[in-house]
Write a structure and sequence with these properties.
Structural class: alpha+beta
Distance between the termini: 78 Å
Strand order of the largest sheet: 2-1-3-4-5-6
Helix content: 10-25%
Radius of gyration: 29 Å
Oligomer: single chain
Number of strands: 29
Length: 494
């Protein structure tokens, strides 16, 4: 007769707003143990500071970190096979990894970070460039096991948390697979601070964490490459199909928490207005902002148009006594027309020019009695870097028709629009993005040789790339008035 033993249930309490990848790895390891049945109980708790999630996002971009970090935040669906049923409370060992377990259901063991129940203390230690003491205690507060992880890279929070959470994972597995065996453990490591209990101390900890996160983000954003707008004064005798070096331009300042790109210029009542995409790192969405040229340069841009979708490429132009804007709204699968109800800060939606199309950087002009729209389009799993489609209409409001020759061009060197049309040397021209070395790595100046309802044909006259110690990519777009030229580049602060 074969003797069978039932598995031991371990209920792990997790904060549903802070489901770390290391916790998922813990559950997976326990599930593979032949004698353990892990159950996940989700409890209410605060999400990580917004600035913390922003910091991790920026670090992944700036340091090219791979996916699968211990501090990645996961959706509760990742834990779905192990979630506790609402109609049953699991018995066995209860482990608190949320720092929020109700007093009516005290855990058998819990994790402390520098003596504090909240893993905010671990985040604070990382920002202080030190290792937190990790302690697992029982319900009487006695130490079960403790450790002090090595943090090899103290300058990148993601890497530091990888080592800290990996060490904690090992401690948890050891404590849960052989629980409450205190006599066999080495002497516990003393925490650097007492457990955080009181309201004032909690408030101080939250304030300190927020200040350190903001400081870390500010340093990272200052160092990390990003898009920026640059401008210079020009005269009418200069070539319109070439650009000087990057040092000839003045940079439009940003605060590091956002970047500006896609500059368009418009002159109204003798004043020069600069319209840009403003991308806020915190919200992860673009909106349209504008800046006025003064005696000392362009002022800080202020928002003038925002929707539920990401907006960019604010193509601004005049027609029939009104001022219009066609911003890119790729996410909505539409090309939209806005009219300035009060220029430059109040815009009303006038019409949908195209529907059910993924169109980027739509740019319009009038030619031979018709309106023409050039846009980069994407179908199925293709790219919108390399495909040029053209549409025409008898009037700006439409109806717009696709050109019979679409796609006009599939060529990553000269397809995607990169600014307004312009007339030069007796011909119609358009700037296009040169993406042959990656997104936005340069400009191609294209002369329109034929533009009618049967044929669209262009020829590339020149290609421009600007590089110096701070500039790594670009220009990405170019627009001009008779006296000002604006471009956008990608690089670090000079």
């Amino acid at each position: 007769m074969t003797e069978t033993t039932s598995k031991r249930t371990i209920t792990i309490c997790l904060n549903h707003a802070r489901l770390w990848r290391w916790q998922h790895e813990l559950v997976m390891r326990l599930a593979r143990h032949p004698d353990i049945d892990p159950v996940v109980r989700l409890v209410d708790g605060p999400p990580p500071p917004r600035a913390f999630t922003l910091l991790l996002m920026l670090e992944k971009f700036a340091f090219r970190l791979q996916a699968g970090n211990a501090c990645d935040l996961l959706n509760e669906k990742a834990f779905e096979p192990y979630l506790e049923r609402r109609d049953a409370m699991s018995g066995g060992l209860v482990v608190d990894l949320a720092g929020q377990t109700a007093t009516s259901a005290l855990p058998d063991i819990a994790v402390l970070y520098d003596g504090a129940a909240s893993d905010d203390a671990a985040l604070l230690a990382v920002l202080d460039a030190r290792s937190p003491v990790l302690t697992i205690v029982d319900r009487e507060g006695r130490v079960v096991i403790s450790g002090l992880p090595a943090v090899e890279d103290r300058t990148v929070a993601t890497r530091a948390l990888d080592t800290i959470f990996s060490a904690l994972l090992q401690l948890c597995v050891k404590a849960m697979t052989a629980p409450l065996m205190r006599d066999s453990q080495p002497s516990p490591i003393q925490a650097r601070s007492k457990a955080i209990h009181s309201g004032p101390v909690l408030s101080f900890g939250a304030t300190s964490l927020a200040e350190k996160l903001n400081a870390r983000i500010a340093r990272l954003c200052h160092r990390a490459p990003r898009w920026f707008v640059a401008w210079r004064q020009i005269n009418e005798t200069e070539s319109r199909t070439s650009l000087p070096g990057a040092s000839a331009y003045r940079r439009l300042a940003d605060d590091g928490g956002r970047y500006y790109a896609d500059p368009f210029l418009f002159v109204s009542d003798g004043q020069t207005h600069l319209f840009v995409e403003e991308y806020d790192h915190a919200s992860g969405k673009g909106l349209i902002s504008t800046s006025l040229l003064g005696a000392d340069g362009f002022e800080r841009p202020r928002p003038v148009l925002e929707t539920q979708f990401h907006l960019s490429y604010p193509h601004v132009f005049t027609h029939s006594g009104a001022i219009w804007m066609i911003p890119e709204s790729l996410q909505s699968r539409t090309v939209d027309l806005y009219r300035a109800e009060r220029f430059p800060d109040r815009w009303v939606h006038e019409a949908i020019l195209l529907e059910n199309v993924e169109a980027s950087d739509a740019t319009v002009c009038q030619h031979d009695g018709l309106w023409w729209m050039f846009a980069a389009t994407r179908t199925w799993r293709g790219s919108n870097w390399d495909t040029l489609s053209v549409f025409w209409a008898p009037d700006l409001a439409g109806p717009w028709q696709p050109h019979a020759g679409n796609p006009i061009l599939v060529d990553h060197r000269c397809a995607r629009p990169a600014g307004d049309f312009f007339h030069y040397d007796g011909s119609l021209w358009r700037p296009a993005q040169d993406c042959s070395e990656g997104y936005g790595t340069g400009l191609a100046f294209c002369r329109i040789d034929t533009l009618d309802r049967k044929v669209v044909r262009q020829s590339v006259h020149s290609t421009v790339r600007l590089r110096d110690g701070a500039v790594q990519r670009g220009p990405h777009s170019v627009n001009r008035t008779s006296t000002i030229e604006a471009i956008d580049l990608y690089g670090t602060s000079a």
